[in-house]
Amino acid sequence: NKRFWTLDPIDGTKGFLRGDQYAVCLALVEEGEVQIGIIACPALCLDDCVGHLIFAQKGNGAWKRPLNDESSPLQRIHVNVDIKSMVQSVEASHGNHSDQQTVAKAAGVDNVILMDSQAKYATVACGEAALYLRLSSYKENIWDHAAGAIIVQEAGGKVTDRNGKPLLFTAVKMTENSGVVVSNGTIHNRVLCAIPRY
């Protein structure tokens, strides 16, 4: 019975200020589940083009197009099951980098790409990375994950918390979840098994 939009007008504020990755993120949530997710990544380079609009609707797949070319046809996006890269937040407060990289290595992922914002979700969804971990000790805000979660899922990936539970977007804070694990799906169980339990 609860339907609402969540918006992050400048996700990755520090990245924006540095001239690095940032995103504008919008998601429609119904009954705690994301139905539509839209991420605009003005600095994300994919297919030799900088700036992309990436979006998904539950049950209808995930898509992208260049931000600067509205006439460009939509391209369906898919995760990549062969890639061995991980995207990780620039901010150390979003999870211990060393611990997260240890978990990634246990799942066969060894190349680390640092970036800000939900551009990390877009990178996994577009097949440029296999994994994004955010093993923070605090409860996450929904606007930091809602749009990206549906996009990765509709691109064929998997998104859960560190315990394998689906993310629940019922309130401002994700109180029912602990951390966030985003993957191409193939390595998801190996990643969950490698995460230390507290």
UniProtKB/TrEMBL annotation:
Transmembrane segments: none annotated. Belongs to the inositol monophosphatase superfamily. CDD domains: PAP_phosphatase. GO terms for biological process: phosphatidylinositol phosphate biosynthetic process; sulfate assimilation. InterPro entries: Inositol_monoP_metal-BS, Inositol_monoP_superfamily, Inositol_monophosphatase-like, Inositol_monophosphatase_CS. The lineage of its organism: Eukaryota, Sar, Stramenopiles, Ochrophyta, Bacillariophyta. Pfam families: Inositol_P. This is 3'(2'),5'-bisphosphate nucleotidase. Its EC number is 3.1.3.7. Keywords: Hydrolase, Magnesium, Metal-binding. Its cofactor is Mg(2+). One of its GO terms (molecular function) is 3'(2'),5'-bisphosphate nucleotidase activity. Mg(2+) binds at D8, I10, D11, D144.
